[in-house]
Each structure stands twice: as C-alpha cells, then as structure tokens.
Amino acid sequence: MMTRIGFVRHGITDWNLENRIQGQTDIPLNDTGRKQAHALANRLKGEEWDVLYASDLIRARETAEIVAAAMGVSVRTDPRLREMNCGAVEGTTQEERIARWGENWKSLPLNIESKESIVDRGLSFTSYLLANYQDSSVLVFSHGALLRLTLKQLIPQVDTRERLRNSAITTLVHFAGSWDCELYNCTKHIS
Fold it and tell me: Is the Cα dihedral 165, 144, 170, 59 positive or negative?
C-alpha cells in the first residue's frame, strides 16, 4: 500500500512580510498570498489528489480552499495542523522581542509550545492519514514550523534546513514502512 502526501505551506501574509511571529494568531493571506495560492492551484489542478486537509487557521485554510476550488473538491480541517503556539511573542518582530525581553528572550518562559508538542501533533496527523488513506494522495495545508519539524522526523535523510517558502509543496510517498521524498520545498509555480 502506498500513500502520497503533499505538504503545502500557506501563501504569504502581511505578518510574514513584516517578520512578525504569527503562531496561532489568525492572520489572513494578503493579495500576494492569494496569487500564490491561485498559481499553486493552476499547477496542481491536473494532478490526482483524493482529499485535502488544512489547518483551521485562515491563512492555511484559504490557501487550501483556493486550490480545492480549482480541483472541484472540498477541504477538511484539523486543529493538529495549526502552527506552533508562540505564546507571548505572537505578533512581535525580533526588534520588539529584544526591546521587551532582552537578547536572551528565547530562554524565557513565554508560553511558547515545545518542539516536542509540535512534532507530536504533526506525527499524530500523519499517522491518521496513513491509517485512513491507504493507496491515496492527500494534500495537507499547514504552517512553516509544524511542517519543518514534522518533515525532519519523517525524512531525516533529506536536508530540511532550508526555510519552507510560502506556497511551497513537499511531496512524500510512504511505501513498505518507509518514506521517500519526491519533491522538497518547490515553488516553481511562482518562480
């Protein structure tokens, strides 16, 4: 049994451009982000994808809905696909964090979700897909930190240090108990 999963980071937002930490703050796509989603939709509409899942946060959900409309399918949401909860630092820039908490702000208890918690959510959702969508192709729309940390666990043999770009797609195939990476962080639809 083979399962193919396309992991997509949402289109760009104003907070992405301002280098503000979004976390679970519900920030919408901007016009450029919507154009990225439409470009991705044009790229993917001729491909076979059986089901689409998205984070319930608007930026990922809207990206998924634009793609789903081009394919004539619906989007299912799952809160496990939300971005990491960034606690007190959500909405801040690096300069604002340093001004508020000092250079060592990362070492402070600011209610930021642990990497282990994020990975647990990502792997839990991936296991759910493997159990419920064998021999299927699933598109998953989520967020940079959740995707990066989950992919690092699924495909440790692939260099995943490159920051996932907005509207990028990474495609993995699960077969005979192991993962193969077909495509990583691809944005040819907007290049």
Answer: negative
For the whole model, what pTM was predicted?
0.96
Percent of the chain residues past pLDDT 90, beyond the cut:
98
Concerning whether 83 is annotated as a catalytic residue, the answer is yes
* pLDDT tens per residue across span 129-168: 999 999 999 999 999 999 999 999 999 999 999 999 999 9
189 is in an annotated binding site: no
Q: Which of 62, 83, 90, 113 is catalytic?
A: 83
Right CATH number for 2-186 from 3.90.180.10, 3.40.50.2300, 3.40.50.1240, 3.40.47.10? 3.40.50.1240
Residue 28 has a pLDDT of 98
Show me where the domains of the chain are located.
Answer: 2-186
**Is residue 120 marked as binding?**
no
105 has binding-site annotation: no
Ranges assigned E (strand) in the chain: 2-9, 51-54, 75-77, 137-142, 169-175, 178-186
Which residue's structure tokens are 């809207």? 62
